[in-house]
Amino acid sequence: MPAQPLPAGDCHQTFELAEATAPAIFRALLSHADQQRADGQLEGAAAALACAAARVTDEEDSRSRYELVRRRGLIEYADGRPTDALASFECALSVAEHLGDKSAIAKQLKNVGSSLRRIGDYSGAMHALSRGLTLQHEIGDAAIGPVLNNIADVYRDLEQPDEAERYYRQALSVFRSEGHYVQAMHVYDSLSALALDRGDATMASELLNTALHDLRLAVEGGADAEGARRYQLLVLAGLAQASLSRGDVTQAREQVAEALALADAHRLPLPGELELQAARVDRLSGAPDAALTRLRTALDSRAWGPAMQAQMLREISLGMEQAGQPGQALSALREAYEREVEDLRAQRDRGLAWSNARFNLSESRRQLAEAEERARHRTLQLWLILVSSAALLAVLILLFWHRQQRMRVMEAARRERYEQALQHYQREANTLAQDRQLLQALLDSREDAVALLDAEGQVSAISRAACRAFNAPRESLEGQSLPDYLQPADAAELRAALERLEDAGSHSLLLSVDGRTTQAVELRPWEGGDGLIVLELQTSPTPASELQSEPTNEPAGREEFRRHLVELMLLAVEGWERCTGLNRIELAERSRIWRVNIDDGRLRARAMERYLSLSKLPKNPRWRDVLRTAYYVLGNGEKMPDELRVDLQQRIDLALAFTRRIALGD
């Protein structure tokens, strides 16, 4: 397990840090961790690295985090945890890619490839190592020896010795050209192992002697002398193994003795390979007890890996068998087998754990990709819905605008037609008024005292003689009710006579027109129609009947005309009530065409009401007032439905046609 960070004070005390700046302390802790790892003190290296990690507080300091996670992976790799190391190296690779440091990327690809080889994923390892090698060639990095060596290791594990040897020799050439004798020693060791595998012990010895010579030169040069001496122990152990393969026990004994003397002189820990070869030399020299003692002491002194323990136990089994202890030899051999199985199981578990982790990661990525794809689809759908909604809204707005525009055009056209109709109605009303002006001109051309009254006694036209008789100017009489100028008794008698006259031929009565003298007055309908009444004052022998038209027989269509007037009046009142919401009394008051009376406290338009029933219609109806009423309704009925307006206009035209027929005597 990785060491937990120590408090700052403990870090200073544990690693004897001098008071310095934070970056300097961080670099010192990294160097200390590297040295501890090189000495095999992995726990100390992890502790130093944990203290260094505690010094990093800036989340954006990617370079420092890269150095930390890279070193953590190296410690995990050295501790026999390739799966954990792989995770750290991949994390470091991601940081390096974020930094854009191609050299660091190539280095982490090498580390990833090494971890994958240890796990057993040779295809992935070869892919990562090949990528790293290609990148180093691209950036002109000549330090390609470690990558070539790792590629050779992959081919060796895949039991392709020829390819492995080819890459080993390329790596060896690079290391020797750069003067890296310690790293070259690993290549010599691997090449010698290949030589031993094919039974060429002589070649193995030559390779290892060359490595030993280079290491001695390195020690003399002072470059990492202690590390070179450690590797000398491994090379001497390899030479002893090669000598034993040739059957030269004496030379093997000398090589082991040299290695033991070197370790004793410099107080170096004995590697497992040297312990194993020393025990073999003792056993083959006829001293199995010494071999057993050495191996048992070695097993008890240090925690070896399962593979090394298995090799030592096998050698113990051989020593016991040579010492005449077959039972114990079998037990040792069984234990060696258990260690090998344990090692294989551990490798398998690491592989399964890595495969499971890869599967989970792949599954997580797949699920994440599916979630992202669904999110993209949802986003696309939302955008499509939004765009479709916007398009639909735009279409609706456009349609609404076109509809409003069409309605405005239609309203403008309707308004124009309405204005034209108003002008037409005004012209027609003016035409009716002009008829009254013609009557007034006719009366002014005579000397008779004659006046034209409507059914309510209102003066429509009056001659000059009549004005003199009433002793009032024309302006005060025209448009006014004549009974208002008489004495109350005379006024009541005149109103009664007017009511009776609507259904009678003529009527005579005596009135005091000037308030002093009484004159004979004759009332009779005007034969010109229009419901007007002729009032003649008997002041001269000239008969007022000259005002009337020549007697004519009543036309055949007279009754139809009367019925049509009633229908027109009913339609006009209906149109008024529908478009204004007001009643017929309001129509009479506002149009000023029909007189409004008060009967028993109620407002009534009795004259108008007679035109709403054919049975009550006067014998001589005021058809001009009916037309004026219809025109007034049309002119003030802006909200009147078009079909009602058309119907009312058609009935007006029909009424005018009747009047022309009556005038022509048809």
TrEMBL record:
Superkingdom of the organism of origin: Bacteria
PROSITE patterns for the chain: PAS
Record-annotated membrane-spanning stretches: 382-401
InterPro entries (UniProt xref): PAS, PAS-like_dom_sf, PAS_fold, TPR-like_helical_dom_sf, TPR_rpt
A biological-process GO annotation: regulation of DNA-templated transcription
Coiled-coil regions listed: 415-442
Keywords: Coiled coil, Membrane, Transmembrane, Transmembrane helix
Domain PAS positions: 435-505
Extent of the signal sequence: none
Gene3D superfamilies xref list: PAS domain, Tetratricopeptide repeat domain
Cited SMART domains: PAS, TPR
Pfam family, any one: PAS
Protein name: Tetratricopeptide repeat protein
Species this protein is from: Pseudomarimonas arenosa
